[in-house]
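Write out the 3D structure for:
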Amino acid sequence: MRTVDPLHVQLLRTLRDEGAVSRAELGDRLQMPRPRLLAELERLVNLGYVAEAGLAASRGGRRSTLVELSPHLRFAAVDLGASSIDVEVVNGRLEPVAAYTEPADIRSGPKVTLQRVNELLHKARVDGAYERLDAIGIGVPGPVSFRDGVPVSPPIMPGWDRFPVRELLTREHGCPAVVDNDVNIMAIGERHGGVAHSVDDFLFIKIGTGIGCGIYLNGEVYRGTDGCAGDIGHIQVDPNGPMCSCGNLGCLEAVFSGAALARAATAAARAEVSPALAERLAARGAVTALDVAQGAVEGDVTCIQLIRDGGRRVGSVLAGLVSFTNPSMIVIGGGLAQLGHILLAEIRSVVYRRSLPLATGNLPVVLSELGPRAGVAGAAVLASDLAFGEAA
Protein backbone atom coordinates (compact mmCIF):
# COMPACT_ATOMS: atom_id res chain seq x y z
CA MET A 1 0.00 0.00 0.00
CA ARG A 2 1.32 3.43 -0.89
CA THR A 3 2.35 6.01 1.71
CA VAL A 4 -0.54 8.26 2.70
CA ASP A 5 -0.76 11.69 4.28
CA PRO A 6 -1.59 11.14 7.99
CA LEU A 7 -3.29 14.55 8.21
CA HIS A 8 -5.59 13.57 5.36
CA VAL A 9 -6.50 10.31 7.09
CA GLN A 10 -7.01 12.18 10.37
CA LEU A 11 -9.52 14.44 8.63
CA LEU A 12 -11.63 11.46 7.60
CA ARG A 13 -11.24 9.78 11.00
CA THR A 14 -12.44 12.95 12.72
CA LEU A 15 -15.59 12.98 10.61
CA ARG A 16 -16.06 9.26 11.32
CA ASP A 17 -15.68 9.59 15.07
CA GLU A 18 -17.22 13.02 15.68
CA GLY A 19 -19.94 13.32 13.05
CA ALA A 20 -20.88 16.49 11.20
CA VAL A 21 -18.69 19.53 11.94
CA SER A 22 -18.14 22.91 10.36
CA ARG A 23 -15.18 23.57 8.11
CA ALA A 24 -13.87 26.13 10.59
CA GLU A 25 -14.07 23.67 13.50
CA LEU A 26 -12.43 20.95 11.44
CA GLY A 27 -9.58 23.28 10.50
CA ASP A 28 -9.06 24.26 14.15
CA ARG A 29 -8.99 20.64 15.32
CA LEU A 30 -6.53 19.53 12.68
CA GLN A 31 -4.53 22.76 12.63
CA MET A 32 -4.77 22.62 8.87
CA PRO A 33 -4.48 25.84 6.81
CA ARG A 34 -7.91 26.82 5.51
CA PRO A 35 -6.96 26.83 1.80
CA ARG A 36 -5.61 23.30 2.05
CA LEU A 37 -8.61 22.13 4.11
CA LEU A 38 -11.06 23.49 1.54
CA ALA A 39 -9.13 21.87 -1.31
CA GLU A 40 -9.02 18.52 0.51
CA LEU A 41 -12.73 18.62 1.30
CA GLU A 42 -13.63 19.48 -2.29
CA ARG A 43 -11.55 16.55 -3.53
CA LEU A 44 -13.13 14.18 -1.02
CA VAL A 45 -16.61 15.36 -2.00
CA ASN A 46 -15.77 14.56 -5.63
CA LEU A 47 -14.47 11.13 -4.60
CA GLY A 48 -17.69 10.40 -2.73
CA TYR A 49 -16.20 10.31 0.77
CA VAL A 50 -17.56 13.60 2.15
CA ALA A 51 -20.87 15.41 1.80
CA GLU A 52 -22.40 18.67 3.05
CA ALA A 53 -24.71 18.23 6.03
CA GLY A 54 -26.74 21.43 6.24
CA LEU A 55 -26.16 24.49 8.38
CA ALA A 56 -24.78 24.65 11.90
CA ALA A 57 -26.82 26.20 14.71
CA SER A 58 -26.80 29.98 14.67
CA ARG A 59 -24.41 31.80 16.97
CA GLY A 60 -25.58 35.24 16.00
CA GLY A 61 -23.59 35.58 12.79
CA ARG A 62 -23.53 33.81 9.48
CA ARG A 63 -24.32 30.12 9.95
CA SER A 64 -21.55 27.69 8.98
CA THR A 65 -22.05 24.81 6.60
CA LEU A 66 -21.44 21.41 8.15
CA VAL A 67 -19.60 18.57 6.47
CA GLU A 68 -19.83 14.87 7.22
CA LEU A 69 -18.84 11.53 5.78
CA SER A 70 -20.95 10.52 2.83
CA PRO A 71 -24.13 8.68 3.92
CA HIS A 72 -23.45 6.22 1.10
CA LEU A 73 -20.20 4.85 2.58
CA ARG A 74 -20.41 1.21 3.58
CA PHE A 75 -17.84 -1.05 5.25
CA ALA A 76 -18.11 -4.78 5.91
CA ALA A 77 -16.83 -6.19 9.19
CA VAL A 78 -16.30 -9.93 9.67
CA ASP A 79 -15.25 -11.75 12.83
CA LEU A 80 -14.51 -15.44 12.28
CA GLY A 81 -14.36 -17.49 15.48
CA ALA A 82 -13.55 -21.15 15.91
CA SER A 83 -17.28 -21.90 16.03
CA SER A 84 -19.05 -18.79 14.75
CA ILE A 85 -19.35 -16.18 12.01
CA ASP A 86 -20.27 -12.58 12.84
CA VAL A 87 -20.84 -10.17 9.95
CA GLU A 88 -21.88 -6.53 10.01
CA VAL A 89 -22.31 -3.90 7.33
CA VAL A 90 -21.78 -0.43 8.79
CA ASN A 91 -22.06 3.15 7.55
CA GLY A 92 -19.32 5.77 7.62
CA ARG A 93 -19.89 6.42 11.34
CA LEU A 94 -19.43 2.65 11.89
CA GLU A 95 -23.07 2.25 12.89
CA PRO A 96 -24.51 -1.19 11.93
CA VAL A 97 -27.06 -1.23 9.12
CA ALA A 98 -27.13 -5.04 8.83
CA ALA A 99 -25.87 -7.81 11.11
CA TYR A 100 -25.73 -11.59 10.93
CA THR A 101 -24.49 -14.14 13.48
CA GLU A 102 -24.49 -17.89 13.05
CA PRO A 103 -22.61 -20.99 14.20
CA ALA A 104 -19.82 -22.29 11.98
CA ASP A 105 -16.81 -24.56 12.18
CA ILE A 106 -13.53 -22.93 11.18
CA ARG A 107 -12.14 -26.43 10.57
CA SER A 108 -14.44 -26.81 7.56
CA GLY A 109 -11.77 -24.85 5.67
CA PRO A 110 -11.41 -21.49 3.97
CA LYS A 111 -13.48 -22.16 0.86
CA VAL A 112 -16.58 -23.25 2.77
CA THR A 113 -16.24 -20.56 5.45
CA LEU A 114 -15.52 -17.66 3.12
CA GLN A 115 -18.25 -18.78 0.74
CA ARG A 116 -20.68 -18.39 3.63
CA VAL A 117 -19.26 -14.96 4.43
CA ASN A 118 -19.79 -13.94 0.80
CA GLU A 119 -23.35 -15.26 0.89
CA LEU A 120 -24.14 -13.20 3.98
CA LEU A 121 -22.66 -10.06 2.44
CA HIS A 122 -24.60 -10.59 -0.78
CA LYS A 123 -27.74 -11.10 1.28
CA ALA A 124 -27.11 -7.74 2.94
CA ARG A 125 -26.85 -6.12 -0.49
CA VAL A 126 -30.08 -7.74 -1.68
CA ASP A 127 -31.78 -6.58 1.52
CA GLY A 128 -30.73 -2.99 0.73
CA ALA A 129 -27.92 -2.49 3.25
CA TYR A 130 -25.54 -1.26 0.56
CA GLU A 131 -25.08 -0.70 -3.16
CA ARG A 132 -21.34 -1.24 -3.04
CA LEU A 133 -18.76 -1.84 -0.32
CA ASP A 134 -15.90 0.59 0.20
CA ALA A 135 -13.71 -1.82 2.21
CA ILE A 136 -13.82 -5.08 4.16
CA GLY A 137 -12.15 -5.91 7.48
CA ILE A 138 -11.92 -9.50 8.69
CA GLY A 139 -10.44 -11.21 11.74
CA VAL A 140 -9.50 -14.90 11.91
CA PRO A 141 -8.66 -17.06 14.97
CA GLY A 142 -5.00 -17.66 14.25
CA PRO A 143 -1.67 -16.01 13.38
CA VAL A 144 -1.87 -13.66 10.39
CA SER A 145 0.69 -12.03 8.13
CA PHE A 146 -0.87 -8.57 8.23
CA ARG A 147 1.31 -7.45 5.35
CA ASP A 148 0.26 -10.31 3.05
CA GLY A 149 -3.34 -10.72 4.20
CA VAL A 150 -3.04 -14.47 4.84
CA PRO A 151 -3.21 -16.77 7.89
CA VAL A 152 0.10 -18.49 8.69
CA SER A 153 0.20 -21.99 10.22
CA PRO A 154 -2.91 -21.43 12.38
CA PRO A 155 -3.14 -24.33 14.90
CA ILE A 156 -6.95 -24.62 14.97
CA MET A 157 -7.56 -23.76 11.29
CA PRO A 158 -6.59 -26.76 9.10
CA GLY A 159 -6.36 -25.86 5.43
CA TRP A 160 -6.04 -22.09 6.03
CA ASP A 161 -2.24 -21.81 5.92
CA ARG A 162 -1.31 -19.07 3.42
CA PHE A 163 -4.83 -19.08 1.97
CA PRO A 164 -5.30 -15.76 0.08
CA VAL A 165 -8.15 -14.41 2.22
CA ARG A 166 -7.58 -10.76 1.32
CA GLU A 167 -7.26 -11.49 -2.39
CA LEU A 168 -10.43 -13.58 -2.46
CA LEU A 169 -12.55 -10.97 -0.69
CA THR A 170 -11.18 -8.14 -2.81
CA ARG A 171 -11.94 -10.02 -6.01
CA GLU A 172 -15.41 -11.09 -4.89
CA HIS A 173 -16.59 -7.67 -3.72
CA GLY A 174 -14.52 -5.25 -5.79
CA CYS A 175 -13.09 -3.31 -2.86
CA PRO A 176 -9.92 -3.37 -0.72
CA ALA A 177 -9.79 -5.79 2.21
CA VAL A 178 -7.67 -6.14 5.34
CA VAL A 179 -7.04 -9.32 7.36
CA ASP A 180 -5.94 -9.48 11.00
CA ASN A 181 -5.88 -11.82 13.97
CA ASP A 182 -9.21 -11.98 15.83
CA VAL A 183 -7.84 -10.71 19.15
CA ASN A 184 -6.24 -7.71 17.43
CA ILE A 185 -9.56 -6.65 15.94
CA MET A 186 -11.21 -7.08 19.35
CA ALA A 187 -8.57 -4.82 20.89
CA ILE A 188 -9.12 -2.26 18.12
CA GLY A 189 -12.87 -2.37 18.71
CA GLU A 190 -12.48 -1.89 22.45
CA ARG A 191 -10.06 0.99 21.88
CA HIS A 192 -12.44 2.72 19.48
CA GLY A 193 -15.74 2.36 21.29
CA GLY A 194 -15.34 0.38 24.51
CA VAL A 195 -13.86 0.54 27.97
CA ALA A 196 -10.36 1.23 26.61
CA HIS A 197 -11.45 4.31 24.66
CA SER A 198 -8.52 6.75 24.55
CA VAL A 199 -6.22 4.40 26.51
CA ASP A 200 -2.94 4.31 24.61
CA ASP A 201 -1.26 1.34 26.32
CA PHE A 202 -3.36 -1.70 27.21
CA LEU A 203 -3.67 -5.46 26.82
CA PHE A 204 -6.83 -7.11 25.50
CA ILE A 205 -7.04 -10.75 26.58
CA LYS A 206 -9.39 -12.99 24.63
CA ILE A 207 -10.33 -16.17 26.48
CA GLY A 208 -12.46 -18.46 24.36
CA THR A 209 -11.80 -21.50 22.20
CA GLY A 210 -8.23 -20.18 22.23
CA ILE A 211 -6.40 -17.55 24.25
CA GLY A 212 -4.70 -14.52 22.72
CA CYS A 213 -3.56 -11.02 23.60
CA GLY A 214 -4.05 -7.82 21.62
CA ILE A 215 -1.30 -5.35 22.47
CA TYR A 216 -1.78 -1.58 22.25
CA LEU A 217 1.38 0.49 22.60
CA ASN A 218 1.47 4.26 22.10
CA GLY A 219 -2.01 4.24 20.62
CA GLU A 220 -1.29 1.60 17.97
CA VAL A 221 -1.68 -2.16 17.74
CA TYR A 222 1.66 -3.91 18.12
CA ARG A 223 1.74 -6.94 15.82
CA GLY A 224 5.44 -7.82 15.92
CA THR A 225 7.78 -8.40 12.99
CA ASP A 226 5.75 -11.21 11.44
CA GLY A 227 2.30 -10.48 12.87
CA CYS A 228 2.18 -13.04 15.67
CA ALA A 229 2.81 -10.85 18.72
CA GLY A 230 0.44 -11.62 21.58
CA ASP A 231 0.03 -15.35 20.96
CA ILE A 232 0.09 -16.00 24.72
CA GLY A 233 -2.12 -19.10 24.47
CA HIS A 234 0.99 -21.09 23.58
CA ILE A 235 3.11 -20.02 26.54
CA GLN A 236 3.83 -23.15 28.56
CA VAL A 237 2.36 -23.09 32.07
CA ASP A 238 2.64 -26.80 32.92
CA PRO A 239 5.44 -28.95 31.42
CA ASN A 240 3.47 -32.05 32.40
CA GLY A 241 0.18 -30.71 31.08
CA PRO A 242 -2.00 -31.96 28.22
CA MET A 243 -1.06 -31.82 24.55
CA CYS A 244 -1.94 -28.52 22.87
CA SER A 245 -3.22 -28.07 19.32
CA CYS A 246 0.17 -26.54 18.47
CA GLY A 247 1.90 -29.84 19.32
CA ASN A 248 3.53 -28.76 22.58
CA LEU A 249 2.67 -29.77 26.13
CA GLY A 250 0.99 -27.72 28.82
CA CYS A 251 0.29 -24.49 26.91
CA LEU A 252 -2.03 -22.00 28.62
CA GLU A 253 -4.64 -22.69 25.94
CA ALA A 254 -4.45 -26.43 26.61
CA VAL A 255 -5.13 -26.08 30.34
CA PHE A 256 -7.69 -23.25 30.28
CA SER A 257 -9.87 -22.45 27.27
CA GLY A 258 -13.42 -23.27 26.24
CA ALA A 259 -12.51 -26.81 25.23
CA ALA A 260 -10.19 -27.38 28.21
CA LEU A 261 -12.82 -26.16 30.68
CA ALA A 262 -15.46 -28.40 29.08
CA ARG A 263 -13.11 -31.39 29.45
CA ALA A 264 -12.45 -30.61 33.11
CA ALA A 265 -16.16 -30.10 33.73
CA THR A 266 -17.00 -33.43 32.09
CA ALA A 267 -14.45 -35.21 34.26
CA ALA A 268 -15.88 -33.55 37.39
CA ALA A 269 -19.41 -34.54 36.39
CA ARG A 270 -18.46 -38.16 35.78
CA ALA A 271 -16.60 -38.32 39.07
CA GLU A 272 -19.76 -36.91 40.72
CA VAL A 273 -17.81 -34.27 42.62
CA SER A 274 -20.05 -31.57 41.19
CA PRO A 275 -23.82 -32.02 41.64
CA ALA A 276 -24.58 -29.18 39.22
CA LEU A 277 -22.41 -30.61 36.44
CA ALA A 278 -23.49 -34.21 37.07
CA GLU A 279 -27.12 -33.18 36.71
CA ARG A 280 -26.47 -31.40 33.43
CA LEU A 281 -24.40 -34.30 32.08
CA ALA A 282 -27.19 -36.75 32.91
CA ALA A 283 -29.80 -34.51 31.28
CA ARG A 284 -27.96 -33.65 28.07
CA GLY A 285 -25.05 -36.07 27.75
CA ALA A 286 -22.48 -33.26 27.67
CA VAL A 287 -21.40 -30.20 29.61
CA THR A 288 -19.90 -26.93 28.41
CA ALA A 289 -18.05 -23.91 29.77
CA LEU A 290 -21.42 -22.16 30.06
CA ASP A 291 -22.59 -24.94 32.40
CA VAL A 292 -19.60 -24.20 34.63
CA ALA A 293 -20.55 -20.52 34.69
CA GLN A 294 -24.15 -21.34 35.61
CA GLY A 295 -23.04 -23.86 38.23
CA ALA A 296 -20.81 -21.24 39.82
CA VAL A 297 -23.74 -18.81 40.02
CA GLU A 298 -25.68 -21.55 41.82
CA GLY A 299 -22.83 -21.90 44.33
CA ASP A 300 -21.40 -25.21 43.12
CA VAL A 301 -18.00 -25.46 44.81
CA THR A 302 -16.35 -27.47 42.02
CA CYS A 303 -17.49 -25.02 39.32
CA ILE A 304 -16.15 -22.10 41.33
CA GLN A 305 -12.84 -23.90 41.79
CA LEU A 306 -12.52 -24.71 38.09
CA ILE A 307 -12.95 -21.02 37.26
CA ARG A 308 -10.47 -19.97 39.94
CA ASP A 309 -7.90 -22.48 38.73
CA GLY A 310 -8.21 -21.09 35.20
CA GLY A 311 -8.01 -17.51 36.42
CA ARG A 312 -4.84 -18.36 38.34
CA ARG A 313 -3.25 -19.78 35.18
CA VAL A 314 -4.17 -16.74 33.12
CA GLY A 315 -3.12 -14.35 35.87
CA SER A 316 0.34 -15.94 36.17
CA VAL A 317 0.98 -15.31 32.46
CA LEU A 318 -0.43 -11.77 32.62
CA ALA A 319 1.73 -10.93 35.63
CA GLY A 320 4.81 -11.45 33.48
CA LEU A 321 3.34 -9.34 30.67
CA VAL A 322 2.49 -6.54 33.08
CA SER A 323 6.04 -6.41 34.40
CA PHE A 324 7.33 -6.46 30.82
CA THR A 325 5.01 -3.96 29.08
CA ASN A 326 3.66 -1.84 32.00
CA PRO A 327 0.17 -1.29 30.46
CA SER A 328 -2.43 1.22 31.69
CA MET A 329 -5.27 -1.33 31.56
CA ILE A 330 -6.05 -5.00 31.02
CA VAL A 331 -9.34 -5.87 29.31
CA ILE A 332 -10.76 -9.41 29.47
CA GLY A 333 -13.02 -10.53 26.61
CA GLY A 334 -13.98 -13.56 24.56
CA GLY A 335 -16.52 -16.28 25.23
CA LEU A 336 -15.14 -17.24 28.64
CA ALA A 337 -15.51 -13.67 29.89
CA GLN A 338 -19.05 -14.87 30.66
CA LEU A 339 -17.48 -16.66 33.64
CA GLY A 340 -17.69 -13.19 35.11
CA HIS A 341 -16.36 -11.77 38.31
CA ILE A 342 -15.10 -15.03 39.82
CA LEU A 343 -12.66 -15.31 36.91
CA LEU A 344 -11.90 -11.59 36.98
CA ALA A 345 -11.23 -11.56 40.72
CA GLU A 346 -8.77 -14.46 40.46
CA ILE A 347 -6.91 -12.87 37.54
CA ARG A 348 -6.70 -9.58 39.44
CA SER A 349 -5.46 -11.29 42.58
CA VAL A 350 -2.61 -13.07 40.83
CA VAL A 351 -1.61 -10.07 38.69
CA TYR A 352 -1.57 -7.69 41.65
CA ARG A 353 0.30 -10.17 43.84
CA ARG A 354 2.95 -11.27 41.36
CA SER A 355 3.66 -8.12 39.31
CA LEU A 356 5.84 -5.22 40.37
CA PRO A 357 3.98 -2.81 42.70
CA LEU A 358 4.94 0.14 40.51
CA ALA A 359 3.24 -1.53 37.51
CA THR A 360 0.02 -2.42 39.37
CA GLY A 361 -0.50 0.63 41.58
CA ASN A 362 -2.98 2.07 39.08
CA LEU A 363 -3.82 -0.86 36.83
CA PRO A 364 -7.51 -1.64 36.23
CA VAL A 365 -8.32 -5.20 35.14
CA VAL A 366 -11.82 -5.06 33.65
CA LEU A 367 -14.27 -6.98 31.47
CA SER A 368 -14.83 -5.94 27.84
CA GLU A 369 -17.54 -3.34 27.43
CA LEU A 370 -18.39 -4.38 23.87
CA GLY A 371 -18.59 -8.10 24.63
CA PRO A 372 -19.29 -10.22 21.54
CA ARG A 373 -19.36 -7.10 19.30
CA ALA A 374 -15.72 -6.22 19.97
CA GLY A 375 -14.48 -8.19 16.96
CA VAL A 376 -16.82 -6.78 14.31
CA ALA A 377 -16.42 -3.30 15.80
CA GLY A 378 -12.65 -3.52 15.36
CA ALA A 379 -12.92 -5.02 11.88
CA ALA A 380 -15.08 -2.05 10.89
CA VAL A 381 -12.44 0.39 12.19
CA LEU A 382 -9.74 -1.42 10.20
CA ALA A 383 -11.89 -1.38 7.06
CA SER A 384 -12.58 2.34 7.36
CA ASP A 385 -8.91 3.15 7.97
CA LEU A 386 -8.03 1.14 4.86
CA ALA A 387 -10.58 2.98 2.75
CA PHE A 388 -9.43 6.36 4.08
CA GLY A 389 -5.85 5.49 3.18
CA GLU A 390 -6.96 4.49 -0.32
CA ALA A 391 -8.67 7.87 -0.67
CA ALA A 392 -5.51 9.78 0.25
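The mean pLDDT is 93.
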